[in-house]
Amino acid sequence: MPFITAIVLASFAGYGTAWYLGFVEGNFALLLFLATVVTGLYWLAERLWFLPQRRLAAERMEASSARRRADLAAKGITQVDGEVAEARQRLLMQPWWLDWTAGLFPVILAVFVLRSFLFEPFKIPSGSMIPTLLVGDLILVNKFTYGVRLPVIHTKLTEGTPPRRGDVMVFRYPPKPSLDYIKRVVGVPGDEVAYLDKKLTVNGKPVPKTPAADFLEEDSMLYFKQFEERLDDKAYRILNDDNRPAFIPGVESFSFKENCRYSVEGVVCKVPEGHYFMMGDNRDNSLDSRYWGFVPDKNIVGKAFFIWMNFGNFGRIGSFQ
After folding, report:
1. What are the tens digits of pLDDT across the range 82-106?
2. How far is CA 118 from CA 145, 148, 236, 303, in A?
3. Does the active-site annotation cover 270?
4. CA 166 to centroid of chain Cα atoms
5. Is the peptide bond preceding residue 131 cis, with omega within 30 degrees of 0?
6. Which of 226, 242, 232 has the alpha carbon at shortest distance from 281?
7. How much of the chain is in helix, strand and coil states, percent to nearest 5?
8. How far is CA 94 from each of CA 39, 43, 53, 98, 116, rounded to the nearest angstrom?
9. CA–CA distance from 53 to each of 11, 145, 206, 270 (Å)?
10. Are 301 and 139 in contact (CB under 8 A)?
11. Residue 290: partners with Cβ closer than 8 Å, 6 or more residues away
12. How far is the C-alpha of 277 from the C-alpha of 289, rounded, in Å?
């Protein structure tokens, strides 16, 4: 078993190293699931076989020691070398290969359940959601609001509450589902979403857009026009860049593309059933549904709702719209 365990642990370490170095495309959900299964099997084996065997060996050692002491006492010898308690402790101690498997199972199981069904942490890698979310924000995503899903295979177990316009949602990027994206829901199934001349309209009703103070983007040290947008009951801020045109270049081929009409002013799309139209709050610097299409319900990961840390700005901690 020590040799087999060493191979198993080396496989996990090798996969993690290759992922970190960019040699393979990692899947953390799958890795965590496999770690939970493997350590769980070791935990069961420990409880049902290895621990009982160590206890039996300890009992045999104690019985043998007691017989030896009794035999020596019958011969008048009372001074006997050896510490029974210390020897018993050594026999009951978990070997390293169980300590690194069965011993870690409760922690790995807790992380697996928490991450898969309750809350998952994410780090914002790009500026597509500025000013709502900044690069480096560490956020929490609610995994059960939109329905509980099985990890890895993403099968839905409960319906939950459907995504609403204005929600900030994490989803698996349709062109490459191994990547997680975060954008704002601006269109739900059946909606007609228009983004023309940098103005958002949903079902023929313009979304209110009120000017706000210009936003300083610290990385580029440039100011951008900032607006407060109100979509249904959600109020949030967006950015527009006057130097970027309204038309949408480099549109990809995607499912239900026939539901969209592109022009120099922008795009108009009819959202199909079971899909959502997503846009970044940094409107002219966001690769979103305008470019690659609709997000199917099966790609939903969860609802983003809280910034739990930003190491460069502790004042960022808190909830957001």
Report:
1. 566 777 788 778 888 888 888 899 9
2. 9, 8, 25, 11
3. no
4. 21
5. yes
6. 226
7. 35, 30, 35
8. 14, 11, 11, 6, 30
9. 28, 46, 73, 66
10. no
11. 195, 248, 251, 266, 267, 279
12. 6
Active site residue 128: yes
The distance of Cα 242 from the centroid of its chain, to the nearest Å, equals 35
DSSP 11: H
Q: pLDDT class for 72, splitting at 50, 70, 90? A: low
Residue written as token pair 């198993």: 8
Catalytic residue among 183, 286, 289, 303: 183
> Number of C-alpha atoms within 13 angstroms, CB side, residue 175?
10
Stated length of the chain: 321
Widest CA span in the chain: 107
Token pair in block for residue 21? 């170095």
The DSSP code for 126 is S
Q: Where are the beta strands (DSSP E) in 153-298?
A: 168-172, 180-187, 192-196, 199-202, 205-206, 209-217, 222-231, 234-240, 260-263, 266-270, 275-279, 295-296
Amino acid at 168: V
Residue type, 119: F
* Domains in the chain, CATH or no CATH each: 2-112 (no CATH), 124-319 (2.10.109.10)
User: pLDDT tens across 227-239, in order?
Assistant: 999 999 899 999 9
CA distances from 309 to 121, 133, 248, 306, 321 (A): 10, 12, 34, 9, 16
In angstroms, rounded to a whole number, what is the distance separating the alpha carbons of residues 8 and 201? 55
128, 143, 286, 303: which one is catalytic? 128
